[in-house]
Amino acid sequence: MSIDGQLPPKARLLRAAAELLAKSGGAPVSTRQITKLAEVTAPTLYHHFGDKEGLFDAVVAAGFEEYVAGERDFAPSGQPLEDIRRMWDNHVQFGLNQPELYLVMFGNIRPESRPAIVADAEGLMEEMLNKAAAAGQINVPPREAARSILAANVGVTLMLIAEPATERNLELSTLTRDAMIFAVSTDQAPGAGADSGRSSVVVAAIALNAALQASNPDQLSSSELKLFLEWLHRISSSNT
Amino acid sequence: MSIDGQLPPKARLLRAAAELLAKSGGAPVSTRQITKLAEVTAPTLYHHFGDKEGLFDAVVAAGFEEYVAGERDFAPSGQPLEDIRRMWDNHVQFGLNQPELYLVMFGNIRPESRPAIVADAEGLMEEMLNKAAAAGQINVPPREAARSILAANVGVTLMLIAEPATERNLELSTLTRDAMIFAVSTDQAPGAGADSGRSSVVVAAIALNAALQASNPDQLSSSELKLFLEWLHRISSSNT
DNA sequence: CTAGCACCTATAGCGTTGCTATATGAACTG
DNA sequence: CAGTTCATATAGCAACGCTATAGGTGCTAG
């Protein structure tokens, strides 16, 4: 029930914080609990981490490593959309496995201040969507698609966490997941919906844009390329 | 800067709490601030509301009335899916207009304990989806569809709130909204597009070129387009 | 070997938090 | 008028995040 006394105080604080955060069941964790478990006094905490949030950030950073590792560890199946599916599922699973940590990472939102974690997660998702875009499987700019999918992913995970564990129905996740992926993918026939106007021009422009990000061609000078990309963006951002 | 002294203490507490919550910009609001603004002492608060959370719940209940009123106030257009769109937009707008209240209502999540508000919002959404289902426009059970859409709606709203107001891009909302609605609606056909993953800058450029031949975009002027096509040709003619 | 210095940790305590035991006043009820 | 109930106030507790200050430790320089 205590922390290995051999470790340096900083590491003991990190472990104690992580342990209490994991076991607290969502209840707030006090610095006094942490320092007591770490067998350390208050100023030590503030010396190493500045304040409570600094300590939590450090814990989150560790948790994020774990999260990112999970998001990267499966072999890229060669089917980007399938990889995005697994990314989604991994995200949800991470949230359900470590709800308190997840809430600190994605749930502790304040207006006008986005935690860095969210931006990183966005980048991760965007990276994957770039591959899909390069393969012409996406009909929306990768950045927007990534933000959209991630927002839905977070929303679903939060909703699942808020539910009693016995009632949790992962169908909510798969349904929403496939809905989002389906909606941004080109792998659909033009229905009568508003998306039908999203012509193949836009799709091709998005794909080319993504491909160019991966490898700059030497057929254009840098100034030409700059203007070229601008026009490309203008085309791929059109909504009609 | 103070609360109408004519009102009974209970109402004054409610107003003070709402006012401080709205102005706090996400920072925690203390009971002492509230009671001071309401010109009342601490026990009065606890006599009427039990505890701080009880007071906030009461504030939220009032906010929820406003929210529900907004969700109901537009005439049912006869097109359930269109109504759901407006419901979504109204939800987002409510969140952006009163971010602090919204965060108390939808963001203050703890594991295994779902705020009643969420259940109510779910019911509202489900109600609307029932109409869509009755019209044969839904290919998913209304309850699941409602939960799924609401989860995405909340996720998007939270993400928008977390962003600096200047960077907020409502396209994220409309994109996700239409994606979700499109995915649960019957108004779609199974896809046939099978452009496999063998893409590159050249392939994408060729595809874009072909697409542009079919329909010229109006985002570029004719002179821009001419140069654009020339560069495109240069890229797609390369051998790499 | 010692002086000095930077680093790390502890003692003690400040100001604020949510909340309450107790008491007092007012208003209705028998 | 006595009794009860409701509503508010006085005063204060325990816990919170945090810090001013000081003391101990290990290093390097002379």
Description:
Two copies of one chain form a homodimer. With 240 residues, the first copy, chain A, is mainly alpha-helical. Chain A has a domain at 80-236. Chain A is built from eleven helices and no strands. Chain A has helices spanning 9-23, 31-37, 42-49, 52-73, 80-97, 99-107, 116-134, 142-162, 171-184, 200-214, 222-236. In chain A, α4 (52-73) packs antiparallel against α5, α5 (80-97) packs across α6 and α10 (200-214) runs antiparallel to α11 (222-236). Mean pLDDT of chain A is 80; it is low at 189-198. Chain A binds a DNA duplex (30 and 30 nucleotides) through residues 9, 28, 30-32, 40-48, 51-52.
> C-alpha Rg of chain A, in Å?
22 Å
Helix content estimate of chain A: 55-70%
Summarize model confidence as the mean pLDDT of chain A. 80
Q: What is the chains' assembly state? A: homodimer
Tally of separate helices of chain A: 11
Task: Determine the N-to-C terminus distance of chain A.
Answer: 62 Å
Which two chains have the most extensive interface, and how many residues on each? A-B, 82 and 80 residues
Short key terms for the protein model shown above:
homodimer; about 240 residues; mainly alpha; 11 helices; about 0% strand
Task: Describe how the helices and strands are arranged.
The structure is a homodimer of 240-residue chains.
Chain A: H1 9-23, H2 31-37, H3 42-49, H4 52-73, H5 80-97, H6 99-107, H7 116-134, H8 142-162, H9 171-184, H10 200-214, H11 222-236
Helix pairs in contact in A: 1-2, 1-4, 3-4, 4-5, 5-6, 5-7, 5-8, 5-9, 7-8, 7-10, 8-9, 10-11
Chain A binds a DNA duplex (30 and 30 nucleotides) through helix 3.
